[in-house]
Model the fold of this input.
Amino acid sequence: MTETGCVRRTAAACVGRLVSLLLLVSACGAAVAQPPAVLDSQSIVRSLRPAPAGTRSLVVAKRETRDGERKVNLDIRFANDSDRLTAEAHAQLAELGAALSSPELAHARFLIAGHTSATGAAEHNQRLSESRARTVRGYLLQRFKIAPERIEATGFGASRPLPGFSPNALQQRRVEISTLAPAS
Done:
């Protein structure tokens, strides 16, 4: 084989590998960079609104919540290993703030619970989940002027994983909003 033929074959192989690598990076980037699904304020209200007194309900699936507790999981994104909100988080927080400020939920109290995946040390994940829940609470108090006594914040680290997902899955990194019993 001539030297020119060898160089051409090597160059073609390199270009082919480069194209494959670019396609792989593009596919991975698309999966990671997809914006989170934003749940609208009315869906949040329906999820959190207490059932009217004196009604009966049919329970199709077993609920692991306390009587009367309503909750919704939201995909509120943070910077990696941080409590700093990403740009994508603001759209979901705007919908959450509108829901919590709505007339249907104006007198309800809520718990903001931060959750992490199982990646990393348990103590670190616990602190991170608590810090993220406090960040969401602070954002809602500041931007939507919600009374501080209406919102509590806590973190659970990786101790309460969603069923059906790996403990390290991105879906485990979430913020859960639950209704609380009225203050006595």
